[in-house]
Write a structure and sequence with these properties.
One of its GO terms (cellular component) is Golgi apparatus. This protein is mainly α. It has helices spanning about 1-5, 10-55, 65-75, 75-100, 105-130, 140-150, 160-190, 190-195, 200-235, 240-275, 275-300, 310-335, 345-350.
């Protein structure tokens, strides 16, 4: 499998092995963190009742909502799953980049790894803030005291050493992959674009086309990542009535389906048929998704108790979604401007396939390739 993807390139083989090792190590550690976090969350739920009763006997104390503490402990589980999925995603992207000798996508994986380093840092901080000791009598202090006294529950935040290990490993692995990517860049160069021909304008159009396709892949991942977090948090929240909860979930599922499935399909169809109508609808839908993400980001900052335990993660994903959304709409607009200039025929030269529709292309077997 590695030989087929990497060919005779030594650095291609190194990149696939390195990425595979990264996926195995981080998935293993995150699985341990996930299991410890579930135990920690369960223990907090066991202790919070007695801790609340014991705190009532104190003359003065802070009055945090016990439900917020339970929610903060529960919702972090989805982030460990997302981190695991991200490792599989980066490995799949690399295999795709190696198969197509796509230098742009390799550079994008370097950036994605940097984002995962930031994500690992946020994981350490967010998990450490579930229970924070305060100077006054408080429910969090009482829970921490119970953890110290009880012999049955494991010590609070037993996953911290593994979370720090993930952060340290991601820094090393991301740095190592960046070096390998530099070697691959020198090795591949822009060789794929040489197949386009001597027309520099056509090469530039193809570069934009490839960047747009690559960004759409990341759009899907980060939009689905945000949706998983938001849905998990909404289900855990006690601030909605059953009817309101139903309406919020239906609205978000509709918008999420549109942003993650319908819009990418419209982009695919628009590129395939060089349809300005489809691309125009894609850009309009992308703008609506941007507005929705801005609204959600404002809610995260303005209503902190509602998003307890997830503020930093949600902010991270929403900001990435906003940046990707702006880039996606820009490159979609540039791709649309390049329609009807012969790019589809030149893509056929690179992929070895014929692109429909083109008058200059004939034959019974016609299919479209985005790589």
């Amino acid at each position: 499998m590695i030989s087929r993807l990497a060919g005779d390139s030594t650095w291609s083989r190194y990149s696939l092995v390195w990425s595979g090792i990264q996926a195995l190590l981080i998935i293993a550690l995150e699985s341990v963190i996930f299991r410890l976090h579930l135990t920690e969350s369960h223990n907090i739920q066991l202790i919070i009742g007695p801790a609340t009763i014991a705190l009532q006997q104190r003359p003065t104390f802070d009055k945090p909502d016990p439900q917020e503490i339970v929610q903060a402990a529960r919702v972090l589980s989805v982030y460990h799953v997302l981190f695991i999925v991200a490792q599989v995603f980066q490995l799949i992207l690399l295999c795709d980049a190696m198969f197509n000798k796509n230098t742009i996508q390799i550079i994008a994986i370097v950036i994605f790894n940097c984002a995962m380093v930031a994500y690992a840092g946020v994981q350490v901080k967010q998990a450490s803030e579930i229970l924070v000791r305060t100077p006054n009598d408080s429910l969090t202090n009482m829970i921490l005291d119970f953890f110290a006294l009880e012999a049955t529950p494991k010590p609070y935040h037993a996953s911290l050493p593994y979370e720090i290990a993930v952060l340290a490993l991601m820094i090393v692995l991301a740095s190592g992959f960046a070096f390998i990517a530099y070697k691959l860049y020198k090795e591949f160069g822009w060789s794929i674009y040489k197949k386009i021909g001597a027309d520099l304008a056509m090469r530039d159009m193809y570069k934009v086309y490839q960047i747009f396709i690559m960004i759409v892949k990341f759009d899907i991942f980060f939009q689905l990542g945000f949706s998983a977090q938001f849905l998990s948090l909404t289900v855990e929240s006690q601030t909605y009535s059953p009817e309101d909860l139903k309406n919020v979930l239906i609205l978000h599922l509709i918008l999420s389906t549109g942003a993650s499935i319908i819009l990418p399909f419209m982009a695919w169809y628009g590129l395939k048929r060089e349809s300005k109508i489809a691309m125009g609808c894609f850009i309009a839908g992308g703008f609506a998704t941007l507005v929705y993400n801005v609204i959600k980001l404002n809610q995260v900052f303005s209503d902190a108790p509602r998003f307890a335990g997830a503020n930093k993660f949600l902010s991270f994903f929403l900001i990435v979604n906003l940046l990707l959304g702006i880039a996606t709409m820009y490159f979609a607009w540039v791709c649309m401007k390049n329609f009807n200039n012969g790019l589809n025929a030149h893509i056929g030269k690179v992929s070895g396939t014929n692109i429909y529709p083109m008058e200059s292309v004939s034959g019974p077997s016609k299919r479209w390739s985005i790589e």
